[in-house]
Amino acid sequence: MVWAPEAADTPLRVLRRLETGPRGLVAADAEARLLDHGENVVPSRRPPTLPRRFVRSLRDPFTLVLLGLGLVSALIASWATAGVIVLLVAVSCLLRSNGEYRADRSTAALRRLVATTTTVRRRATKDAEPEEREIPADQLVPGDVIKLGPGDLVPADARLLRANGLTVHQAQLTGESAPVPKRALDLPEGDEHLLWQGSSVTSGSALAVVTATGAATRFAGAYAGPLPSRRGAGRRTSAFDRSVNGLSWVLVRGMLVIPPVALVANAVLRGKGLEALPFAVAVAVGLTPEMLPVVVTTVLARGSALLARRGVIVKRLSALPDVGAIDILCMDKTGTLTRDRPVLSGSVGPGGRPDPEPLRWAAVNGLWTLHLADPPAPDPLDEAILAGAPDLGEVEGLDAVPFDPLTRVSRALVRDGEDVVVVVKGAVEAVLERCALGERERRRANATAASLARAGARVLAVARGPASARTGLDAAGERDLTLVGFVTLADEPSPDAAAALALLARRGVKVKILTGDHPGTAARICRELGLEAGEVADAAGLTAAAAERATVIARCTPEQKARVVRALRAAGHTVGFLGDGVNDLPAMRAADVGICPRAAVDVTREAADIVLAGKDLSAIGQAVAVGRRSSGNIVTYLRIALSSNLGNVIAMLVAGLALPFLPMLPVQVLAQNLCFDAAQLALAFERPGPAALRRPFRLRRRAVLRFILGFGLVNAGVDLATFAVLTRVPGMEGEPAFHTGWLVENMLTQAAIMLLLRPVRRVSRPLGLATGALAVAGLLLPLSPLAPALGLVRLPVTSVLWLLLVLVLYAGVLVALTARTRRRA
Ligand SMILES: Nc1ncnc2c1ncn2[C@@H]1O[C@H](COP(=O)(O)OP(=O)(O)OP(=O)(O)O)[C@@H](O)[C@H]1O
């Protein structure tokens, strides 16, 4: 059976070819088709397997440079060096891919909870009435009849059977960034009647028949390789990623420069040629924080697992440090701060007097948009209006376009007795600008709406005007309507919103409300939640400076929300956006981190980096804390690893020039590196001090570089002091004794650095064990069976005592130098 419809086929022919009908498939038939066609999953969207992750982790710049150095070692037959490098790479990639894999698995159950679902029409038996059900999108089969509404992801390729004011965003497939209109034309010419998997509904509603699923969709064909970013082309790397990448590249450059410098120096000063190459390679490896990718993955995977236990899904692991860096969180109001369960509270005429007419016409509009546009999920506002509406009389619906956040109105064309009328309801300004009103009447209407909003109500304006059944809704002028009045609805704040806002304030995150609603309503909700409303601004004509000052920005269109977010980012803030509706999508894409509650519409959930699967909004505060902790641990690792490595490399290069022999054998450099790397994994389990949780975390690259350089030099000084001791203590004259002394001292100082260069004093159990093991390994390696292979010998007791003395002095210096930073933590 060939499912793909020819572009110009009529709906009937397509339905026939797919052996289905407008009433949907019979359930048993759908099951059989599922076996035939498989699940509706694009192959490249399946989570990668462990081996594939392993191969992917090889693409890291450090790993590539390490492999390059390994290759050089192999070419000059320095097998031990090559072997240790391959071991380092293998362990690093294995730990990293395993960490990612486990992080994915830890959120898998939660992900299923918030998986995309689709409203499908199916029948229990051939003669049964069709029923509409939500099923997971991966269970769809060709021939299924589906319903779509604003915010829905198009779950498979489909042919429209009916469409109402439908526009879709299909940039991923066609590159068009603006939403394109779609119609259920009988005899189409272009692709106006076709929907592609991977696009999303911006406005309107539709009934469509699925023509292709899974690997057979156009999307799967277009992206056989890796997927483009789900957040669209606008997605940038975060400040944290950029800083870590920047540091990495400084080091990679260093790694590439060191071997030639060491070689040339040896050649010039000692007339040695290529025999110094293994040493040069080992020194370059010594500079690498080869465990950086592993530590980053472990820290982030742990953070994500911790949050999963609290019902928070981190979809993009690298979003965690971004959450920790957020200093402004913008959020929408409806469905985030309020429950989005509005209840009708009143109906008044344009002057503010109680009047049932606005409610009646609002309900007529709501009823027929619901019936004719037939969206998959009814709008809560329309439901509330219908629940509280009186008898609507004999009004027959002719056409309707559901609510669109861009126009901010919903429209219906109805026959009222002999007359055909267009009924418009929506945001006050959007409706008033469609009304023929004198200056005074307009002012009076605005004053009425403002006073209703100040009392905290959601206000909808209702207007009507003459139209023609023949020319239909699209041609209805809608310019000279008559204002019927206003309906008001109450929407309770979410029970946990106040606590969540208070927690964010304690964490130093400023909250801004960006809403499509009236400023009065938004300001009132803020006060009820204990948030100082401060400056309330109107989105129209808002300047960047005003956006920075305001706490509430009202009457926002979706694009204006995004513009505010972009302006705040341009002013140097790290901005999070929390929203649930299709009107929040552009802002979510513009923000550093997108967050959405579980009940958000599909597209918003797809675009979000973090999904709050639980009900409690306070989870955002927890995500912020975990984000800061994760970044803190990564930076602590970088400081410790790099200042220690840098110190060692400087000391080795200097000593290399002063000594008649190599200060350390390549295999010793690498063995010491391996031990240090393994111990440093414990830094992933650290808990930063309370001060780190009180303010947004910013990785300041310069400050980190200064720290690394400063302590690197101190460390080099200590190494050279060790060098001086080793050359003077009796019994240490020979090359093996010198090597052993330096290796032991290095491992002891590395353990000291791990304990002392952290921002907090408290030592976690994993860290205590790791540093203890590193120090003991340093002392015991020369006595172990590995000693001959590593070129180590037993040291006289006096020299060990001397080395311990240097260590104590070094620890004293570190304690004195870090006292100030620790006091602040
Ligand atoms: N179903 C509807 N019919 C008519 N008007 C609506 C409907 N839903 C919303 N509106 C009006 O359009 C305005 C903008 O709606 P939009 O959904 O963009 O934002 P919002 O509901 O106010 O919430 P948020 O705080 O999430 O931005 C609303 O304030 C309301 O006046």
From TrEMBL:
Pfam families the record matches: Cation_ATPase_C, Cation_ATPase_N, E1-E2_ATPase, Hydrolase
Membrane topology: Multi-pass membrane protein
Main subcellular location: membrane
InterPro entries, alphabetized: ATPase_P-typ_cation-transptr_C, ATPase_P-typ_cation-transptr_N, ATPase_P-typ_cyto_dom_N, ATPase_P-typ_P_site, ATPase_P-typ_TM_dom_sf, ATPase_P-typ_transduc_dom_A_sf, ATPase_P-type_domA, HAD-like_sf
Keyword presence, Cytoplasm: no
EC number: 7.2.2.14
Keywords, ordered alphabetically: ATP-binding, Cell inner membrane, Cell membrane, Magnesium, Membrane, Nucleotide-binding, Phosphoprotein, Translocase, Transmembrane, Transmembrane helix
Transmembrane region(s): 62-95, 704-726, 738-757, 769-793, 799-819
The Cation-transporting P-type ATPase N-terminal domain, residue ranges: 5-78
Subcellular location: Cell inner membrane
Enzyme class: translocase
Catalytic activity field: Mg(2+)(out) + ATP + H2O = Mg(2+)(in) + ADP + phosphate + H(+); ATP + H2O = ADP + phosphate + H(+)
PANTHER family given in the database record: CALCIUM-TRANSPORTING ATPASE
Function statement: Mediates magnesium influx to the cytosol.
Annotated family: Belongs to the cation transport ATPase (P-type) (TC 3.A.3) family. Type IIIB subfamily.
Protein name, as recorded: Magnesium-transporting ATPase, P-type 1
Lineage: Bacteria, Bacillati, Actinomycetota, Actinomycetes, Streptosporangiales
